[in-house]
Design brief:
The protein has 15 helices and no strands. The chain is mainly alpha-helical and 398 residues long.
Length: 398
C-alpha cells in the first residue's frame, strides 16, 4: 500500500482537455500575424529591380502566396486542431493577399506608391475605379470574413451564413472582373499575373459546395407550437411579406430594365444614362455587372418572391439569401465607388460624374438593389423556420 501511495504521489497530474476556444483564438491570431507580414513585404518589394519584369512579379506571387504562407502557417499550427483543415490554409493565404490588396488599393488611390510596379507590369487593368473598389472590399470585408471563418473552423462553430456571404461576394467580383479584363479596354494588357486570380475562381465554388451539402441545423420550434399541420396564411394577411414580395419583383424587373438600357434599348438608354453615365465606361465592368444582375439576380428575386408568398418547403432560400446579399453588396460597392470617384493614379479620360439632376434617381436605383436583398436576408434569419417547414399538400394560393 505504501508503494502504491508513493507512486500515486509522484504520478503526473491528469491532463485537462485543451480549451478549444482558447486554441481557436491562438490559431486565428497567428493567421492574422502572418497576413500582416504582407505590409513590410510590399514595402520591401517596391525597392527590388526584379519587380520591373512581369515574370519576376508572377514568380514572387507564387512563392510568397502559395508556398511561403502555407509553409509558415503549417509550422505555426503544428499540434493544433486546424492543422488538417484544408480551407484554414486557403483562407490564411487569402487573408495575406487581402492585406496586399488593401495596400494595392491605397496605391491606386494615390495614398502610397509601394505597389506601383504591380500596376505597371502585374495587373494594369486595376488602374481604374473598379480596381480600387474591389481591392478595398477585399482588404476589409473579405479580410473580416477570413478572420471569422478561420476562428469558426478552429472553434468548431457554424460557418454557413458567413461562408455563403463570402462565396456570393467573391464570386460576383470574379464573374465581373475576369471577363472585363479581357473584353474591356485593357484586353491587350493581360500579363502572367492574371493567372494569380485562378484560385479565387475555384476555391469559392469548392467551399460553397461543402457548405451547401453539409447537414443544416434543425430549425427552432416556433413559439406557440408547431405550424406544420396548420393551413398556410394568405399573403394578403401578411403585410410585411406582401411588401417584400412586391419589392423583390420590382428589383428583378429593374435588373432587366438596366440590362436593356446597357445593350442599347432606345426606351431605357437615355433614361439610364442621365443618372448612370458610368454605364458607358469602356472598361466594360459596369456593363458586365448589369448582365450578371439580369441573368442571376433577377431570376433569384422572382423565385424568392414566390418563396415568400408560400414559405413552407422553400428551405433553399435560407441558404440563397446570404449568397445573394454578398453578391449585391460587393457589386454595388464596386459600381457606386467607380461611378462617383475618379482614381488618382491614372485618371480615366472617359469618366463622367453623375449629373446633379440625376443624383436622386441614381441613389434610388443603387440603394434599392442593396436594401431589398438585405430585407430578404433578415426575413430568413428572423423567421427562417417558416421556410424550413415541409410543404403542405394542396396549398391554397395567396
Amino acid at each position: 500500500h505504501r508503494c502504491v501511495a508513493t507512486g500515486a504521489l509522484f504520478a503526473p497530474p491528469p491532463q485537462r482537455p485543451p480549451n478549444k476556444t482558447a486554441m481557436s483564438v491562438v490559431s486565428t491570431a497567428r493567421m492574422i500575424a502572418v497576413s500582416l507580414l504582407a505590409v513590410p513585404l510590399c514595402y520591401g518589394l517596391s525597392f527590388s529591380s526584379y519587380m520591373e519584369d512581369e515574370r519576376g512579379i508572377f514568380l514572387a506571387g507564387i512563392v510568397f502566396c502559395f508556398l511561403a504562407v502555407p509553409l509558415l502557417m503549417y509550422l505555426l499550427l503544428r499540434g493544433a486542431d486546424t492543422q488538417g483543415q484544408f480551407f484554414f490554409y486557403i483562407f490564411s493565404i487569402f487573408a495575406f493577399t487581402a492585406v496586399v490588396d488593401f495596400v494595392l488599393a491605397l496605391t491606386i488611390d494615390g495614398v502610397i506608391t509601394w505597389l506601383k510596379f504591380y500596376l505597371m507590369e502585374g495587373e494594369p487593368y486595376l488602374k481604374t475605379g473598379h480596381g480600387a473598389a474591389i481591392n478595398y472590399w477585399d482588404g476589409t470585408v473579405h479580410y473580416a470574413c477570413y478572420i471569422f471563418l478561420c476562428h469558426a473552423m478552429a472553434a468548431g462553430r457554424d460557418q454557413r451564413t458567413v461562408g455563403l456571404f463570402w462565396v456570393g461576394s467573391i464570386m460576383n467580383s470574379i464573374i465581373v472582373f475576369l471577363p472585363g479584363n479581357c473584353i474591356g479596354k485593357f484586353g491587350a494588357s493581360i500579363k502572367l499575373s492574371y493567372l494569380l486570380n485562378v484560385p479565387y475562381a475555384t476555391a469559392p465554388v469548392a467551399f460553397g459546395w461543402r457548405l451547401l451539402t453539409a447537414p443544416r441545423a434543425p430549425p427552432p420550434k416556433p413559439k406557440g407550437g408547431s405550424r406544420v399541420n396548420k393551413a398556410p396564411v394568405a399573403l394578403l394577411s401578411r403585410p410585411l411579406d406582401l411588401v417584400l414580395f412586391v419589392l423583390l419583383y420590382a428589383v428583378g424587373s429593374l435588373a432587366i430594365f438596366r440590362l436593356v438600357g446597357t445593350l442599347g434599348g432606345a426606351c431605357c438608354k437615355s433614361f439610364l444614362l442621365d443618372a448612370e453615365p458610368y454605364m458607358a465606361s469602356p472598361t466594360m465592368y459596369p456593363q458586365l455587372q448589369a448582365i450578371v444582375y439580369a441573368l442571376y439576380l433577377a431570376p433569384l428575386c422572382f423565385a424568392a418572391a414566390e418563396a415568400v408568398r408560400r414559405p413552407a418547403g422553400n428551405a433553399w432560400l435560407v441558404d440563397m439569401a446570404p449568397l445573394m446579399l454578398g453578391g449585391v453588396l460587393q457589386g454595388q460597392f464596386s459600381y457606386v465607388f467607380a461611378a462617383l470617384k475618379q482614381v488618382a493614379i491614372v485618371p480615366e479620360p472617359t469618366w463622367e460624374p453623375v449629373p446633379e439632376e440625376g443624383l436622386v434617381q441614381f441613389w434610388v436605383i443603387e440603394l434599392a438593389i442593396v436594401v431589398v436583398p438585405f430585407l430578404l436576408f433578415l426575413r430568413t434569419k428572423l423567421c427562417g423556420s417558416d421556410f424550413l417547414q415541409p410543404a403542405l399538400h394542396h396549398q391554397k394560393s395567396a
